[in-house]
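Q: I'm writing a short explainer about Efflux RND transporter periplasmic adaptor subunit for a general audience and would like to include a description of its predicted shape. Could you first generate the structure from this sequence?
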Amino acid sequence: MTVPKVAFSVFSFLLAITFSLSPAHAQQAPAVVVAPARIVDLRESVDLTGRVVATQKVDIRARVAGFLEAVDFKEGQTVTAGTMLYQVEDGAYRAAVQEIEGSIQAAEAQRDLAVLERDRAKQLITSNTISQAKVDTANAEVKKAEAELVRLKGSKQSADLNLSYTRITAPFDGVLGLTTADVGALVGPDTGPLVTLTRLDPIYVVFPVSTSLLLTYRERVQKGEMPGGANVALTLPNGTEYPLKGTIDFIASNVAQGTDTVTVRAQFDNPNSLLLDGTLVRVILEQSDKQDVLAVPEQAVQRDQQGAFVMVVDAASKVELRRIDVSRSARGLSVVSKGLKEGENVITEGVGKVRPGIVVDAAAATGG
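A: Of course. Here's the predicted structure. Afterward I'll give you a sentence or two in plain language.
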């Protein structure tokens, strides 16, 4: 049986309408992720590269010659000031002290005798028994004996110092490196460093700052646009943040000619020795006072020939293109000085799927 053409056309039209109205083929709202414009403490900051420098670092050397009798530390050990490190044989130095002590006793006796002779001469001259020349000679002998005593006491001080140098101690708190001499080694002033002692707590971080940046900062402080002073934070080589903040304690008075930078130094507490001498770190200089600003995630901000804009989603899930002014960006956020209000939602993901005026299926950003 042949179906009439008119009936077939009507059937096809109804089928097309039914198909187009099927829920499976209805147009769905594009899914996007939104985040609200928020008031946050976003202080101005700048990232620089710095190097960790020990506050104190010295090579321990022998000041007198002799064989080492003891090495009283473990390599890598943390020691306090005055800790015994090395013992140089001291027999010869003790003997030298004793010898000078004996010479001092003899000189004291000689001086006492010269004083007696002088006093006797003074008594005899009153009776014209001896001449004035004899008295003068007696006075000179007393002065000579006293001078010899002064010389010997100076020699004893030198001998005592040499004896004390046989005990090599730590001059300050710090961490010891590798020893270059063992027990039995002959050491002396010319043998070179025995071990290096490094103080790690507190510790310095030295970093260069461009002269233009430093001048701009000082000008803004003078104009009252920002407060003076800055917090100093560090990021370690593995990307983790150092838990303690530092303080700037030195700004150089000269400019490095090759780089046009000024050397700045900050001091950090380092109780766990996380910061090691010579480590390269990232330095973040941040203004010290709180600064509340309106900000949105950086990825929400789009730009074209007319400037910056965001796609705002209103309470009815409708999209609006909103022109904004961005003053700066930091820590993944853009500071909006004009064009948005706190709490308005902007699209952070899926912006390429939308256009102004359409309705979207908006989900809040994780942690937003």
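A: For your explainer, you could say: The radius of gyration is 43 Å.
Q: Perfect, that's easy to follow.
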